[in-house]
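SEVERITY: medium
COMPONENT: batch folding queue
REPORTER: lab tech (J.R.)

DESCRIPTION
The queue accepted two submissions in a row. Attaching both inputs and their returned structure tokens so the on-call engineer can compare them side by side.

ATTACHMENT 1
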Amino acid sequence: MKVIITGSTGMVGKGVLYESLENDLIEKVLVINRSSLGMNHEKLQEIILSDLSQIDTVKDQLQGYDACFFCLGISVLGLNEDQYTKITYDITKAFVDTLYESNPEMVFNYVSGTGTDSSEKGKTMWARVKGRTENMVLSKGFKDAYAFRPGMIIPEKGIRSRTGWYNAIYVIMRPFFPLFKKSNNVTTTTRIGDAMINSVTHSQELKHLENPEINLLAAK
């Protein structure tokens, strides 16, 4: 299996990357980032693209992949709707259009978030934009596609969030992590990675996956 991962410098994307590199089913991992991971691995290949909306400029390097794990995202704090849409919807659509042209039989997984608004009509701006993005991904026509909607995520294997105040909260909550992990409503970076991989080989009827569904799929 050959997979493409975006957002691998972030907490969720790094978790997906680690699980992909460790999984024997996966023979090649292509990460597409704005800056290098600075990591060496026999499975790993990088494309550095300063403007991710220009993904079509490297489309000749994107053929023959079985899945895309799209983990790229940004906090809505400090952004208006146009700014958030450009990063959240427009870049995702550029990837979806380019990858569909090259690999229509791939599985495309989009990391969204709990509370996303599929109707695209709610009062919460980020939820509307995420919902619009989910709908675009799921309706494109890929062999299969999923919207991952994690809520509470526990980082594992030394992974840290790029958001400073998240890390502060994790430090405070760390003693309770073993208890939290017993709840089906809490997931981990490892489980999200395993669920992404399993989605390629275990098609799911439900296309919007929140923490309980992510955990269930991770265990297959």
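ATTACHMENT 2
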Amino acid sequence: MPRFKRNIPPFNATSSADIAFILLLFFLLSGSLNSKTGIYRRLLPDTSEAKLKKKTNIEKRNFITFSIREDNTVFMEDEPISLHEIRDIAKNFIANTDNSEGLPEKKEVEIPELGAVSVTPYAVINFEVSRKASYQTYISVLGELSAAYGELRNETANERFNKSFDRLTEAQQTAIREAFPLRISEKELPGKEVADE
């Protein structure tokens, strides 16, 4: 009995490529990119040293310096400290609850939603980092400094509004941010590798 050979028609891949392209477009256009990843920092405007000198003199008591050396040791001023001490030191510096002479000067200001509040408007945290320090140490210290501001804001929210900071209205959050503005000045720690250039 003779066998008949069936010819298999060729597979048309054009429609498969079209479907794959449409699916790719669908996921690219309907998906959202998380824009809140990374570290949010506002860069300071470029100012010359002469312009800075013209500004009012800011007392030494309004500054505190944290630095990371090239061997990843963390210092406050010139004293070595551990990572878990940073948050409490920064909170004490920013708030100056006892109005200590060695900490930032306090000033009474009127803030909408909060009323008359005693704040430290000139408090600035200097953060100096060696170029050879590890990125992990940099992120850890920066995280502790940011957490100090976060805890102060949260404590104030609980005292004033009996809510955590993230549950406040936008106006209330703005008021608390005005009382505790995030002021961290970052710069590169001068070292041998910079001096040689």
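NOTES FROM REPORTER
Residues 193-197 have pLDDT under 50 and may be disordered.
No errors were logged for either attachment.
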